[in-house]
Design goal:
Blueprint (H helix, E strand, L loop, with lengths): L8 E2 L10 H11 L11 H21 L6 E4 L2 H15 L5 E5 L4 H8 L1 H5 L4 E5 L9 H7 L4 E5 L13 H10 L3 E5 L18 E5 L10 E5 L25 H39 L3 E3 L10 E6 L4 H9 L3 E2 L1 E2 L1 E4 L2 E4 L1 H5 L4 H4 L2 E5 L6 H21 L7
Parallel strand pairs: 1-11, 3-4, 3-5, 5-6, 6-7
Antiparallel strand pairs: 2-8, 7-8, 9-10, 10-15, 12-15, 13-14
Helix pairs in contact: 1-8, 2-8, 8-12, 9-12
The protein binds pyridoxal-5'-phosphate (PLP).
């Protein structure tokens, strides 16, 4: 397998991130000589168990939690499903859920198929977003009811980076004695999070979005929150998730969390400045381009820009000629190019939603890379527009 990373300009960090070299170093002993089972009685396994516990406290530290509130899972998707299905089982008489129209498929598809997982019908309120991607809080207040089992609202949107006021929303849910879950997969490691004083009952995070490996995640379960496990099995994770722990990845995630805390300032200054340079440069140099999502309350690393009258997939293919990696807002579903449900919910016009590109940066990006992308994008868009039947230059 040949993946010549040095030639790649990687701006697709909301899809997945490079595993930090420090994380690889921390993991290596647990892929080689330290192979004991963390549950074993002998010292050889017990040492591995101690490494898992160290990682648990490293994760807890990053999000202002107690290590007892951290349960390791296999990914963000598992954490999301566990939280929702747990709440529905803990309060079987409540048959209403509140979420938003812009959630990741991990929540969106679960909520659309609750009947299949639970055998019951649920009323699901999907809160609408404004044109800038923000939520209408009055509508949220109206939706909360005594029948609501759980609210699930993402901390930050994976496509636009728009940040939702989850602290306030959780407090409002608490007043109505409703559980609150947040999918913080895109937020953890990028913006400061301190759960200690918040009314958030469940939080999901995923290793591969913060420079740890794929296949490890966390569900934060606030102390005292009723909980029903998703995976029955052994006594691992205090009986909250059966299955022998993915030790090396858990150790890697712990190390990634300490790194994220160390790098948080850089993420919010240098990475934000690179993102702004890229965004401002593209909007200035490409006619009929527009920013999707509010400018202020956004993740520091993400920008989502629509280039009207061209297809996102075609843009990505042209970018690929220069080894520039990003994502488009459209997904090729059964042969037709559907614009993203997030941009559709925001009411982004058809001609713009199809041509949206998400650039998501990380601490590994440089100014030279941003300038290279700024040089290559305008001719790519101009070339594609020449072929577009909808494009008429003024
Ligand atoms: N939630 C959000 C907001 C995401 O962006 C993602 C991944 O893209 C997930 C959940 C799913 O995480 P995982 O890939 O770890 O299952």
């Amino acid at each position: 397998m040949n993946c010549p990373e040095k030639d790649v300009i990687y701006m697709d960090n909301n899809a997945t991130t490079k595993v930090a070299p420090e994380v690889v170093d921390a993991m290596m002993p647990f892929l080689t000589e330290c192979y004991g089972n963390p549950s074993s009685m002998h010292n050889f396994g017990g040492q591995v168990g101690s490494a898992v516990e160290k990682a648990r406290s490293q994760v807890a530290e990053l999000i202002g939690a107690d290590s007892k509130e951290i349960t390791f899972t296999s990914c963000g998707t598992e954490s999301d499903s566990t939280a929702i299905l747990s709440a529905l089982q803990a309060f079987p008489e409540k048959r209403h859920i509140i979420t938003t129209r812009v959630e990741h498929p991990a929540i969106k598809n679960l909520c659309e198929n609750l009947g299949r997982f639970t055998g019951h019908n649920y009323r699901v309120t999907r809160l609408q977003v404004e044109a800038d991607g923000t939520l209408d809080m009055a509508k949220y207040e109206e939706a909360l009811s005594d029948e609501t089992a759980i609210v699930s609202v993402m901390w930050a949107n994976n496509e636009t980076g728009v940040i939702f006021p989850v602290e306030k929303m959780a407090a409002m849910a608490k007043e109505r004695e409703v559980l609150f879950h947040t999918d913080a997969v895109q937020a953890v490691g990028k913006i400061p999070i301190n759960l200690a004083q918040l009314d958030i009952d469940f939080l999901s995070l995923s290793g591969h979005k913060l420079h740890a490996p794929k296949g490890v995640g966390v569900l934060y379960i606030k102390r005292g929150t009723p909980f029903v496990p998703f995976l029955a099995g052994g006594h691992q994770e205090e009986g909250r998730r059966g299955g022998t722990e993915n030790v090396a990845s858990i150790v890697g995630l712990g190390r990634a969390c300490t790194l994220a805390a160390e790098m948080m300032d850089e993420e919010n200054t240098r990475v934000r400045a690179l993102r702004d340079r890229l965004e401002e440069g593209l909007l200035a140099s490409v006619p009929k381009s527009m920013l999707n999502g509010i400018k202020e309350d956004r993740l520091p690393n993400t920008t989502n820009i629509s280039f009207e009258f061209v297809e996102g997939e075609a843009i990505l293919l042209h970018m690929d000629r220069y080894n520039i990696c990003a994502s488009s807002g459209s997904a090729c579903t059964s042969g037709s190019l559907e614009p993203s449900h997030v941009l559709r919910a925001m009411g982004v016009p058809f001609t713009a939603a199809h041509g949206s590109i998400r650039y998501s940066l990380s601490i590994y990006n440089t100014e030279a890379e941003v300038d290279f992308v700024l040089e290559k994008m305008p001719p790519i868009i101009a070339e594609l527009r020449e072929l577009s039947p909808f494009w008429k230059a003024d």
